[in-house]
Amino acid sequence: MRCAACTGGTCRLTIFCKRRAFPVFSDSEATLPELYGRPSNSWGRLPSFINEAARLRAFKPPFRFTDFFSPEDTLLCVIASEAALARARLPGASMQAKAPLRIIELTSGSGLIGIHLLRIERHSELVGIDVDESAVETARENAAVLGVARRAMFIRGDMKSRHAMNTVSREKPDLLVCNPPYIPEPPGTNLAVEAGAGPSGTAHIMRTLELAHASKPRALALSWCSLSDPEEVVLAAERAGYRLNSLFITVIADGEYSGKVEEYLRGLDGAFMNSQPETLRVVAPDGSASFGFLLMAGEFSRSSGGPRRENSDAAKHVRTICARFARRGIASLESIEAPFAVRTWLLDRWDEVRLRAFLHGRDGEPANEDPPTQ
Q1: C-alpha to C-alpha distance for 127 and 75, rounded to whole angstroms
Q2: DSSP string for residues in 324-371
Q3: Rounded to whole angstroms, how far apart are CA atoms 126 and 111?
Q4: Spatial separation of the C-alpha atoms in residues 115 and 222, rounded to whole Å
Q5: What is the pTM assigned to this prediction?
Q6: Highest-scoring range by mean pLDDT, 255-259, 279-283, 351-355
Q7: Angle at which helices 313-328 and 230-239 pack, to 10 degrees?
Q8: Which residues does 160 contact at the CB level (< 8 Å), separation at least 6?
Q9: 67 φ, ψ to 5°?
Q10: Which terminus of the chain has fewer Cβ atoms in its 10 Å neighbourhood, N or C?
């Protein structure tokens, strides 16, 4: 669909316009911002996560998403996965002499993260594992569309099965990636969107770390959130023999999920959220949220000293980041001190819509550009 206003000169509106990537309004159109514009000025003290969306420029139609695709946590895990690539290389390997990597993506869904890494790593290979057969078929089609089908294998498998353990051990990955469902499920329920994340939201991550402990990849890229026992995720990684090197955080408004989880979340010791008016005004200026929380993704590498059993500074700092956010709100993210690298962003409701519009592509715009190589 073309912008009706875009007949010449400056484009005045639209998500769909060929001239502009996102909605833009003319100052002369006094009523348009009221109808379609950002409900309030953007909070400029954190960078917008929409600035990172260019990483996903190849994943527009005809690329297909699965039913439960979430662009926010996928993009965050993409960033962590890029950081993990360097950790996955043997020490001293030069850029010119780099050997192909073996990459495994668990809960692979549409295959986006693994395919993105293959587009950077021109000779590396990917195995994607997902319990949903329709997701596996979608990922295979996407790999063909983006020209990496010969280096990508997607298979159906339950992460909890012995088959998954055997597959991961046999493949001997250099890099293991997991961007799973992470919203805690109330006990005794089986909710579609939360999809097996368990009472604390960490079931998939804990199984990933068991598989990592057995297969010993050099690097991990994992995503979770402040609602799903964030300190325990880092502690479990250390018990598996991995240290946190980089943490990536974006604050967002609560999602719709199944509509049955919020009351349960508020009773969990390991769930950190903030409902202060300032935070809600920032993350959801349209008034649609009851709380904000933190999406998190980490880049981990194998610890030289092996698994650790005692509480670590890294895990304590992750809990402190989340606890301060729960007490003080979004302002607590402006300055963070930690023994690992930290990057923070904001994704408000308006930019959530912009991110989805970006991924739907625009008429006439090439979708499959080559990414920079490492």
Answers
A1: 19
A2: HHHHHGGGGGSS---SSEEEEEE--HHHHHHHHHHHT--TT----PPP
A3: 10
A4: 16
A5: 0.85
A6: 279-283
A7: 170
A8: 207
A9: -60, -35
A10: N
